[in-house]
Amino acid sequence: MVEKLISFSLRNRLIVLLVAAGMLGWGIYEVKNNPVDAIPDLSENQVIVFTEWMGRSPQVIEDQITYPLVSNLQGVPKLKNIRGASMFGMSFVYLVFEDDVDIYWARTRVSERLNFAQKLLPEGISPTLGPDGTGVGHIFWYSLDAKGYDLGEQRALQDWYIKFALQTVPGVSEVASFGGFQKQYQAIIDPVKLNYYNLSMMDVLKAVRANNNDVGGRKFEMSDKSYIVRGLGYIKSMSEIENIALSTSNNVPIRIKDVGSVQMGGDIRYGIFDGNGEGEKVGGIVVMRYGENADAAIKNVKLKMEEVQKGLPEGVKFKIDYDRSGLIEEAIHSVKGTLLEVFISVTLVILIFLFHWRSALIILIQIPIAVASAFILLNAFGFSSNIMSLTGIALAIGVIVDDGIVMVENSYRHLSEVQFNKSNVTEK
After folding, report:
1. Residues of 19-35 as b/e, b for ≥16 C-beta within 10 angstroms?
2. Is the pTM of this model over 0.70?
3. Which of 25, 83, 142, 219, CA to CA, is 20 to 30 A from 342?
4. Closest by CA position to 305, among listed 108, 139, 169
5. Is residue 256 part of a domain?
6. Are residues 306 and 419 in the same domain?
């Protein structure tokens, strides 16, 4: 088989050259399209189901949320392992799939199962899927440098402007906010006053819920014109909450301000984000999708941040806390430098030992074709260009050169034998 292949190659040199040129061109194209990252993604092929039920203990979360979800999600196809974790007010279910399963196919199957499993959960509880990012998907961290703005204003700016803008960047799965306070209206109710007016806390909750709602009416026609009736009832200020009526006493309304007070505050926090000991910061974490190009995603995020910066209030600026692109560029630059050094050293060694430029050229042509072909396989199997893969290519160059030298020397030996036999025949 090998002899036939060699004979065919020798008889059809043009075809061999065209195939080699095609492989080289295809490999160069794949090099440009291959995802670039600093480290390989060795995380599991998993889908995360997150459920929030604030104020409940871990035991209640385990019994009423985590256990029903785990027991009903076990039937998902191609599921390798499932794990559950319960904590105060939150439940996490980790579904690990087989390595050959497409992550978006897995997310679809889990979403279908959740439609049934949700019926077994307490009323009003809705489990959600986590972001389609990997364990190494945190590619970019930033914080806000906003002197003169309190933490609540910075968090509102992050949640309602910056986050939505950065999530539109190609390759970004999620922008997770951290730090600061999430603003909320807080009603501080005096239980003594509630008892005096013969009211309960549920009466307050029902009244606030009923008075914070828009309702639709009907359409009617008058004087050849159509009018749509609707009721606008969303709360817009603290005074509107204070004036919500809970009940009446002698035809006098009892309002929330009669049984307590209303203030603007922040949601419960389970931690803070401190910047170099200089105080609390507000910012976000950019999470990359599965299989995306980390280097390209970070560049697109930076470009988007420049656009977002134009719409920020005066005095608010971005501060980059973690940028993986620096590590990526340094790693790729280091490996590329190693490849160049290997290429030059191999060239010199071949020229010195063989002392024949045509033989050296034969061996050196193999190197770029083999490296380019390696990127074809990297893309075919879904691997990125990282320290591990590029270092493997650099180490494989030695094997390529050894193989080329052996083949060239073997060819020279056979040619010399043929030439020797021809000379003997001529003499005879």
Report:
1. eeeebbeebeebbeebb
2. yes
3. 25
4. 169
5. yes
6. no
